[in-house]
Design a protein that fits this description.
It is built from no helices and eleven strands. By secondary structure, it is mainly β.
Amino acid sequence: QVQLVESGGGLVQAGGSLRLSCAASRSIFSINGMGWYRQAPGKQRELVARITSGGDTNYAGSVKGRFTISRNNAENTVYLQMNSLKPEDTAVYYCTAGLNDHIYWGQGTQVTVSS
């Protein structure tokens, strides 16, 4: 099992930046797939970015070039650097970890981008 705690959300103006953090309760060295999802009001949850244990990444088309996912295995933390934020990035952002054929979710952190 693993518990995930997100932080770093908040209110920011369009064009601004935020960095989200996801702290895991155990070592993430052996956790291959870790990622960030988001869910906006009235919309389905969607994948934002994913990173493997080897550092391979993939991004949703809507955030490519603006967001960067990274992981620090020594700190058991995954980050999401979000630049050039847009109002349509407003959502609750969730951290995920795939472990033993189960997907674990954090409680989410709210990101609100004002125009």
